[in-house]
Design brief:
- The complex is a heterodimer of chains A (460) and B (72).
- Chain A has 460 residues and is an alpha/beta fold.
- In chain A, the strands form 2 sheets. In chain A, strands 1-3-2-4-6-5-12-13-9-7-8 form an 11-stranded mixed β-sheet, sandwiched between helices. Chain A has a two-stranded antiparallel ribbon with strand order 10-11.
- Chain A contains 14 helices and 13 strands.
- By secondary structure, chain B is mainly alpha-helical.
- Chain B is 47% helix and 6% strand.
- Chain B contains 2 helices and 2 strands, in the order E-H-H-E.
- The longest helix of chain B is centred in the middle third of the chain and has 22 residues.
- The N terminus of chain B is likely disordered.
- The chains are: A alpha/beta (460), B mainly alpha (72).
- At the A-B interface, helix 9, helix 10 and helix 11 of A face helix 1 and helix 2 of B.
Chain lengths: 460, 72
């Protein structure tokens, strides 16, 4: 067990220490704020630090005013989550001129209701239209394992803050891969839950059809603990499910017995660098998975996800593109403008295809419970890198880091990204994909891999 | 009947004039594109056309409607 004041401490370890009286929440928060001050010049994960609020909250917890499974756990959120009293940047400069949030986003409130303590807002790619973690306004978040490299995005600050050990837990958003890509590049566990499972109320949108929120952490247990605290119907998000809360912690350590696990072939077995397929093979070996399944028309699914994203995102931002184009990040501006010019028939076709693809993929889950796929086609590219060579083909970094995540979020399947750290190399992630609303199975697999020592997320 | 086939594509055989598409489309939707942004917008529309290819190449069955998400 790690010292609860150290950067290696997980959220679960901190909560246990605070609950048992072995550590004070105030001391935990003070240690986190010190680590943040020390690491920020290198990793640039935070855009806002709410130290005063965090210290006050910790004192309340130490006074016995807030009990819960995440007691005393410092956490931070991608800056598209509302934080009371701050403008919701969503990675932009433009939103700084908007209103300040009147209250915290729904998931911030849920984590704090469970005893966790918000310490700040995190850097992100502008308006979440990003896979790199770079941002022209606030500087790039930098990969704690090698600060010359990308964190991945768009939840880049979330990846950097947790991988640097600044905080044990962060929230991000994932529209096409924005939790799974930084989890992969920063060597973390990340959970993109089922579409509609967690409330998005009080967060800045990007693409309503695909927007998901979820946690990044350094252990599977932390994902489960926070996910359980985050679940629950919310009338403020029309997409949020009214299913009963399905706790995942009670079954987390049940092992993988009874789970039928397969490897995604075809589309997911090509178009990446060798390290991404080696990572899948390592995870498959550890799980005894040998069967391969094919997600039919995954390439079209990726196309359709791209089209829906480009058109919905552009439509959302069209008023700002008309009047404040010069204030956009140059790396999102022209992509948004291009999206505004794509035919509406493409959008409707993509939505129609989604129904078919969903039905075909759900059929696979009659035969298997878990599907493994690479999370990213490569480990972290260098900061500023525009093109990359994938499988011998030169491709733009921005459009292609999400090659393997897009066909999965397209139909809202739950995924846990688990980290592989080859000796002497940068980390890379594997997607553990389950049927809708079966986050519990994906988390069980992640916990099993962690227990076997196959997937470990140590801070840099 | 299969829900889709790849018998025929939906993309024109002739390469479209993307620069004109951008200029006229932007006018049609009232989106001013400053000259310094224009080239990158064209590149991004070209890239979108390429990425959309696998979707556009499919022919969908008439009965395949989108999943309803609106619940009155």
């Amino acid at each position: 067990m790690s010292d609860p004041l150290s950067k290696a401490a997980t959220a679960s370890e901190i909560a246990r220490a605070v609950m048992s009286g072995k550590a004070k929440a105030s001391a935990v928060v003070a240690a986190a704020l010190e680590r943040i001050a020390a690491a920020e010049p290198t990793v640039n994960a935070f855009t806002d630090i709410v130290a005063e609020r965090a210290v006050r909250r910790a004192a309340e917890i130490d006074a016995g005013r807030h009990l819960g499974p995440l007691m005393g756990v410092p956490f931070a959120v991608k800056n598209l989550f509302d934080i009371a009293g701050l403008p919701t940047r969503a990675g932009s400069k433009i939103n700084l001129d908007g209103p300040k949030a009147r209250r915290d986003g729904a998931l911030v409130r849920k984590l704090e209701a469970a005893g966790a303590i918000l310490v700040g807002g995190l850097n992100m790619g502008e308006y979440a239209y990003d896979f790199t973690g770079e941002n022209a306004h606030y500087g790039p978040s930098r990969n704690p394992h090698d600060p010359t490299r990308m964190t991945g995005g768009s939840s880049g600050g979330s990846g950097a803050a947790v991988a640097a050990g600044e905080v044990p837990l962060a929230l991000g958003s994932d529209t096409n891969g924005s939790i799974r890509v930084p989890a992969s590049l920063c060597g973390l566990f990340g959970l993109k839950p089922t579409y509609g499972r967690l409330s998005r109320a009080g967060s800045f949108p990007f693409v309503d059809a695909f927007d998901h929120l979820g946690p990044l952490a350094r252990s599977a247990e932390d994902l489960a603990l926070s996910f359980d605290a985050l679940q629950g119907w919310d009338p403020d998000d029309p997409v949020c499910t009214d299913r009963d809360i399905e706790p995942t912690v009670p079954t987390l350590h049940d092992g993988i017995g009874g789970l039928r696990i397969a490897i995604a072939g075809d589309y997911f077995a090509s178009g990446g660098e060798p390290e991404c397929f080696e990572a899948v093979a390592a995870v498959a070996r550890a799980l005894g998975a040998t069967r391969t399944v094919v997600l039919p028309h995954a390439a079209a699914a990726r196309s359709a996800a791209y089209v829906i994203t480009a058109i919905e995102g552009a439509q959302l931002h069209l008023p700002r593109l008309r009047t404040r184009a010069q204030d956009f990040d140059p790396d999102t501006r022209e992509r948004f403008m291009a999206g505004a010019l794509l035919p509406g028939s493409w959008y409707v076709k993509a939505q129609r295809f989604r129904r078919h693809y969903r039905a075909e993929v759900l059929k696979l889950f009659n035969e298997v419970d878990i599907i493994l796929a690479p999370a990213t086609p490569c480990s972290a590219p260098r900061l500023g890198q525009v093109m990359m060579t994938i499988g011998g083909v030169e491709l733009p970094v921005r459009a292609n880091l999400g090659l393997f995540t897009q066909p999965i979020s397209f139909i809202g399947l739950p995924v846990v990204a688990v980290p592989i750290r080859p000796p002497g190399a940068m980390p890379i992630g594997v997607q553990v994909i389950a049927r809708p609303h079966n986050e519990a199975a994906a988390l069980r697999v992640a916990a099993h891999l962690e227990k076997q020592g196959v997937c470990v997320a140590a801070p840099a | 009947m299969a829900p889709y086939s790849q018998r025929e594509g939906n993309v024109a055989d002739d390469k479209p004039d993307i620069a004109r598409w951008v200029d006229e489309g932007a006018k049609a939707i009232g989106l001013p594109i400053a000259p310094e942004y224009r080239d990158k917008v064209i590149v991004n529309v070209e890239r979108s056309l390429a990425i959309a290819g696998p979707l556009l190449a499919l022919e969908l069955d008439d009965e395949l409607t989108p999943l309803p998400v609106y619940r009155p």
